[in-house]
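G., the chain you wanted modeled:
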Amino acid sequence: ELLARTQPTTWDVLIALFGGAAGAVGLTRRAKSNVIPGVAIATALMPPLCTAGYGLATAHWAYFGGALYLFSINCVFISLSTFLVVQLLPLPNHEFADDRQARRVRAIILGLALVTAAPSVYLAIGIVRDGTFTHNAQQFIEEQYNQQPGTYVVTTRLEPSDQSINVLLAGQRLTAAQLKAARVRLARYRLTGAKLTVRQGLARVDSADAQALRTSVLADVRSRTEQTRVSYEGRLAQMQQLLAHADSTATTSLPPAATLLREVQAEHPSVRQLGLARIVQPAADSLRADTTLVVTLRTRPALPAAEQQRLTAWLQVRAGGQQPVQLLVEPSPPTARKR
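Predicted structure as tokens:
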């Protein structure tokens, strides 16, 4: 985030232009709101000022200078876009008494905008050039070295500023003919004139290689951790959906126990008590879980087996046939007689 505010490009110029235009249009509406100007300030002005403060506090003068330049771009082009919006909208304008003074003011505004934007164009060209070199170099290393049988790329150091490629290889050593053939293929990847250095064997490891390897390992660990977290979140969301579906199914497939008891007693008066339960049986190889509805009855006198089968079939239909129903019947204990 800090580095992103130290090398302004033409994209930052466009962001400031559109942000300033949005803020100016928002201020001309009848319903006044500070939301749009506040967003413009939060996105265009505060980040470079915070970066400049960090650079000043830590004596990183490149950070300080780059962030102040970005702040200047935002200030100039937000003002310029506001001026253009005011000129385009039917608003009362300030008129200069002298036409020469008006032309001079417009020329100063245009010149200030051009002077402010010119370095950003140069920086944007440099960023695009460096990004193209890095992409081509990575593709060259992957296809020419990493795909060689028994050969592995340990570290890669790319310096777009001086067009240098430094590669450390391990495993099976490449012959001089193979190294020469790979060097000849640099032109295919638009890397003509690049300085290619290939070192083979872990004995050639230096401190820069160790730092690059450490950075690569940390980046890989972060990537794998993020992938694992996303996978766990997906599985957790799926389990929550399944549990919610199971809960909704369990509550809507059969009425509450008191209501179901009255319905059962209409056909089987010997039923005294009724209980409902749900048993979830998760599977080891799947997130899906089987759910069984358990209906417990206490009867007096005992319910015959034929009636139990008929009642089980009725409960299965009453539950909608979506879940299996298990019926447990036990006789009620005899009540003690008063003497």
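The first strand starts at residue 151 and ends at 159.

Shout if anything looks off.
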